[in-house]
Amino acid sequence: MTDMIKIPNKIAREASYIEDSLPYAIMSPEYFAPITVVVENRPTGQTTRWDEIRELVVKIQGSEKLWRATYRVGLTENQDYPPFDYGGDVEFKSVERKTRMVEEVYYE
């Protein structure tokens, strides 16, 4: 079973605006964000008719584990809504960093 944590929507949304590999922390009266580094914030390569699907991978304070959530960003001015534009907490699943070798074909 995959580990999962829940992060408040507001915190996940703010983290989605941070560039890769930057330290991140937010203080608020009701919550201190456990996110310390945004490891990846990139497109997944998938789109719908109106949205681009992106992934946010973060590290949590006091741990080396990586956590991933996906979110949607509107592709036109008519779909101008923020990341994680729904109520409630955002579920982040535990992930591991892996590499993949891709063979490239080219001609000289």
Task: Please explain how this structure is put together.
The protein has 108 residues and is mostly beta strands. The chain has one helix at 9-16; strands at 4-8, 22-23, 27-28, 31-32, 35-47, 51-60, 66-74, 89-95. Strands 1-8-7-6-5-2 form a 6-stranded antiparallel sheet. A two-stranded antiparallel sheet has the order 3-4. The model has no long low-confidence stretch (mean pLDDT 81).
Q: What descriptive keywords fit this protein?
A:
108 residues, six-stranded antiparallel beta sheet, two-stranded antiparallel ribbon, 1 helix, globular
The helix-and-strand class reads mainly beta
Share of helix, binned: under 10%
| Shape category | globular
User: What is the element string, with H for helices and E for strands?
Assistant: EHEEEEEEE
Biggest sheet architecture: 6 strands, antiparallel
Number of strands: 8
What's the structural blueprint in terms of helices and strands?
Blueprint: E1 4-8, H1 9-16, E2 22-23, E3 27-28, E4 31-32, E5 35-47, E6 51-60, E7 66-74, E8 89-95
Antiparallel strand pairs: 1-8, 2-5, 3-4, 5-6, 6-7, 7-8
Tell me briefly what this model is:
The chain is mainly beta and 108 residues long.
